[in-house]
Amino acid sequence: RTTPGLQTGGPPGSIYHCSANGYSNSNLFLVWLKHFKDHQHPTKENPVAIISDNHDSHISLETYEFCRENGIVLVPLPPYTSHRMQPLD
Questions:
Q1: pTM over cut 0.70
Q2: Count of domains forming the chain
Q3: Is the distance from CB of 67 to CB of 73 less than 8 angstroms?
C-alpha cells in the first residue's frame, strides 16, 4: 500500500514500512522502536520515556521485553481520556 515515490525525498535515515492491510500493528511498532533506539541510544542508566495512546499495536510481550532491555519506558495514556490529554498533541 505504499509506492516507491513515497519513499524518496524524506530526511536522511528515514525508514518506510507498511503492513499488508495498511493498518498499524505490533510488528511495525517494534520496527519503529528499534529505529528509535538506534537514533536516541537509550540505556537502562539513561532511559527515555515514550508517551503513547493505548492502541493494540503498542502492547505486546515482544515490545515490552524490547523496551525493558533497552531503557525505553512506555507510558500509555488511559483509554477514553483524549479530551483531557489534548494539550499533549
A1: yes
A2: 1
A3: yes
